[in-house]
Amino acid sequence: MPVGVPVGLVAGLFACLITEIYCHRCLAHRAFRVHPAVASFCDGFMRIVGGVHAQTWASVHRLHHRYADTPLDPHSPLQRRPLLVLVGTPYLFVKARRRLPAEAAPGNGALHAAARALIFALLIVVIGPGQTLLALAVHLACYLGIMGMVNTFGHRTGRKPHPDFPGYDSAWLALLLLGHGYHNSHHAHPSAARTGLLDPMWPIVRLLSGAGLLSLDEPRAEREPRSCCLAAAA
């Protein structure tokens, strides 16, 4: 197997984990708080590897919850062609970011761009330019593919245990989509730290909580079921 494939897979999956646990559950929905050192690492990783400020990601995601499956939803497969939602995540994200106030969409600084260039240079030296490009392609396909499937399949097929809320539950998709097989349940209880029975992120959340790196407040979803979605740019 070309070395670029595992390098890209590891980078892509790690980016998915940070996006889901930190950007999504912590920042966007405030399901828990993370240790300041963890927050600093995740912020830096998202700026350098993901190319986006974590708070900007969270603000765009709140737009999705606030306007789910309406024309103002940044990436509803019911309002746009499903194929565009599946493969067009960067385009839809940039388009939605323009709707945010400046304080909700901070950019990346020159230091993070320099760090990104240094990582690419090191990879080129260690594994070569061809394998570096392969790793980048695998990383993007993994990360954007999972994010695109969450947005596409979560709003089109499955059970609907909460009829008044958008999305569908498909437990068999939960492992593949980082817990978002329970998409209808997530829209009904966005502040819940656990999305459903087969949520693959839950053991990681509990492990981080036990290590003191994460402050878990499990009853919060019942006390404030949708408060995190009321201010899209908060």
Task: Characterise the protein shown here.
With 234 residues, this protein is an all-alpha fold. The chain is built from ten helices and two strands, in the order H-E-H-H-H-H-H-H-H-H-E-H. It has a two-stranded antiparallel sheet. The longest helix has 25 residues. The chain is globular, with a radius of gyration of 18 Å. The model has no long low-confidence stretch (mean pLDDT 88).
What's this model, at a glance?
With 234 residues, the chain is an all-alpha fold. The protein is built from ten helices and two strands.
Major sheet attributes? 2 strands, antiparallel
Mean pLDDT: 88
Radius of gyration: 18 Å
Output the strand order for the largest sheet.
Answer: 1-2
**How much beta, percentage-wise?**
under 5%
Instruction: Return residue spans where pLDDT drops below 50 for at least 5 consecutive residues.
Output: none
**Number of structural units classed as domains:** 1
Distance between the termini: 45 Å
The helix/strand class is mainly alpha
Shape verdict: globular
Order of helices and strands: HEHHHHHHHHEH
Helical stretch count?
10
Q: How much helix is in the residues?
A: 55-70%
Quaternary state, please? single chain
Number of strands: 2
Please outline the helices and strands.
Blueprint: H1 4-28, E1 32-34, H2 36-50, H3 54-66, H4 82-87, H5 89-97, H6 110-127, H7 129-153, H8 183-188, H9 202-210, E2 214-216, H10 220-223
Antiparallel strand pairs: 1-2
Helix pairs in contact: 1-2, 1-3, 1-7, 2-6, 6-7
